[in-house]
Design brief:
five-stranded antiparallel β-sheet, 6 helices, 18% strand
């Protein structure tokens, strides 16, 4: 098998493998730019958050508010309050008296509000919204979650990113080998880069 034959096969099969990821990232980008429209679809008067329970709880809030420290604190709170929950965890503290811990997967969002001054914790579940589902799909990644499946998703996203680069590179090579398409291809490539550079410099 020649290199050109291999490159064409690589381009075709990468396109097939990447098809669901292209659709996912393409479709899920729309709610980011049209969030007001999608949020308006759910303004039916119902509550956004529903309280599951509220009870006494005590844990020292760390003085160090770095993301790593707050996430470790959030994971500890989840182990205490909702043991066995393996969803992605995020936490932040707007002040010394209060900490918000968020549990997120593609379908469900849960908020834990810990009030250190009152020594209470409240668990709330968010209504399902399709725009939140798609934006979570688009933005989820990283190896900072304490879960095998979360790390696996992050690893697959890394592979998909590499595959995108290979897909583009193999396509550029195929274009360059078609002499009759070089002019139009150069215009397309140059136009794409020009548009990107203009917005990069202006925004």
């Amino acid at each position: 098998m020649s290199f050109n034959h291999f490159n064409r096969r690589l381009h075709v099969y990468l396109a097939l493998v990447l098809l669901p990821w292209v659709f996912m990232y393409g479709i899920s980008a729309v709610p980011f730019t049209r969030h007001d429209y999608f949020d308006g679809l759910h303004k039916d008067g119902g509550p956004m958050w529903t309280t599951r329970f509220e009870r006494e709880y005590k844990r020292a809030v760390p003085l160090d508010k770095t993301p790593e420290t707050m996430q470790a604190f959030g994971q500890a709170v989840v182990r205490d309050i909702l043991p066995g929950d393996t969803r992605s965890v995020g936490a932040y503290s707007p002040n010394a008296r209060q900490v918000y811990v968020y549990l997120v997967d593609f379908w469900d969002h849960t908020r834990i509000t810990y009030r250190a001054d009152q020594k209470t914790v409240k668990i709330e579940d968010k209504r399902f919204h399709w725009n939140h589902f798609f934006t979570t799909l688009h933005s989820r990644g990283g190896y900072h979650q304490d879960s095998f499946l979360n790390d696996t998703w992050a690893f697959i996203v890394d592979l998909v990113s590499i595959a995108f680069v290979l897909w583009v590179a193999s396509g550029v090579l195929m274009w360059w080998q078609l002499k009759q398409a070089r002019v139009w291809g150069a215009l397309a490539l140059g136009g794409g880069f020009a548009c990107f550079v203009v917005f990069l410099a202006a925004l």
